[in-house]
């Protein structure tokens, strides 16, 4: 009789694997909350807040940097999805910019801690590199607006992209410092984006308010 095959390890759908995935998701969720509250939160603090032992956290994330890196990856995925959904089916460049930014803000506001951590474990260059697809699709929207006269700027399209990216992170920093109320920041950032791209302020404000109200109706 041939040797019996060893019992296979837990499959991705096994109960133990499902528990591990649930633990990992919970740790990431709690870590975002704790790090937003205290950017210096330790692995021990995060473990206690998540209701797991320290060993469990280190089992998923061997270091604090690894945990932050996983948060960055999750944030990038969420931003990419929101950016695409916010402009889906919209032809007008200015409206597409407003829709995509408002959609991104709904998820990006949760990850404002990335700005605080950018001078620690995560560099701004690293964040920019990971958001490459969002950056390129955003530039394409602005280029369409420049081509049809919606936007007017003396800057090359790529330079405009850097300016607008800087506005986004500056608004996040202003929220962290208590200068801008979080509940108003999304619309304010979108209006600032559009005016920086050459849209008249009154037109940008009306457009953002209209898009925001429509999004609230659809998502609410």
Q: What would the keywords be for this entry?
A:
73% helix, 11 helices, 220 residues, 0% strand, 2 domains, disordered N terminus, Tetracycline Repressor, domain 2, elongated, Arc Repressor Mutant, subunit A, mainly alpha
Distance between the termini: 65 Å
Q: Element order, helices and strands?
A: HHHHHHHHHHH
CATH architectural label of the largest domain: Orthogonal Bundle
Share in β-strands: under 5%
- Cα-atom Rg, whole angstroms? 21 Å
Fold blueprint:
Layout: H1 15-37, H2 43-50, H3 54-60, H4 64-87, H5 93-108, H6 113-117, H7 124-130, H8 132-147, H9 157-176, H10 182-196, H11 201-219
Helix pairs in contact: 1-2, 2-3, 4-5, 5-8, 5-10, 5-11, 8-9, 9-10, 10-11
Could you please describe the fold and organization of this structure?
The chain has 220 residues and is mainly alpha-helical. The chain folds into two domains: 14-62, Arc Repressor Mutant, subunit A, CATH 1.10.10.60; 71-219, Tetracycline Repressor, domain 2 (Orthogonal Bundle), CATH 1.10.357. The protein is 73% helix and 0% strand. It is built from eleven helices and no strands. The protein has helices spanning 15-37, 43-50, 54-60, 64-87, 93-108, 113-117, 124-130, 132-147, 157-176, 182-196, 201-219. Helix 1 packs across helix 2 (43-50), helix 5 (93-108) runs antiparallel to helix 8 (132-147) and helix 5 (93-108) packs antiparallel against helix 10. The longest helix has 24 residues, at 64-87. It is elongated. The N and C termini lie far apart (65 Å). The relative contact order is 0.10.
Summarize the model shown.
This protein has 220 residues and is an all-alpha fold. Helix content is 73%, strand content 0%.
